[in-house]
Amino acid sequence: MTKKTKILLAEDDENLGRLLHTFLVNKGFDAVLAENGKIAFRYFGDGGIDFCIFDVMMPEMDGFTLAKEIRETDKKVPILFLTAKSMKEDKLEGFNLGADDYLTKPFSMEELLARITAILRRIEPNTHAESELLTIGTIQYDPESRVLHLNEGSKKLTTKENELLHLLVKNENEILDRNATLRLIWGDDNYFNGRSMDVYIAKLRKLLKEDPAIEIMNVHGKGFKLVVK
Predict the structure, then answer these.
(1) For the segment 182-191, what is each residue's pLDDT rounded down to a tens digit?
(2) 6-126 topology per CATH
(3) Between 191-208 and 159-170, two packed helices, what is the crossing angle to 10 degrees?
């Protein structure tokens, strides 16, 4: 059975949000509705999101800020913005933040579906990558079942180990921002959570050491980078 595309929908208009959510579910998507950007960011941190639809103007955290936070830890997940504005500057800002498309209200549901379908078709080779085995050097990694396949046998990762490793793998050879990662996985980038993350990084280094080509580098003042030589 093919895994449903999971869409994170962030829309503060209660009626429109419910309408869009129902439409997406009826069209066969696994949709999650958040009424503001802060809640949406928390849902994204739970993992498994394949596609994002964000209203630009929202309380707590607007759509642009939400997208910027997500792009710190995930450069590839598709993002489509919904906005009541049609100003060129707003569209440029959205695309500069890594948006895949833009839809100005009011819009038809069928137009929204067409945009989603077009974006998913473009990224089809990468869709549902989470349910497949990933390769880190010579090590096989299954993020969905949280398992690392090592020479000494399979190792089941804890939830946080898995979330951290998955972010590193998705951002291989790119800097993973320390504070953004803390906010995404731990919910807060305070000192104590930072120390906790350092412990998890050390654990992951120990697990991956069987392949000397794999390195999790500290990038001073910024974060970490997974490098496979």
Answers:
(1) 988 888 889 9
(2) Rossmann fold (3.40.50)
(3) 80
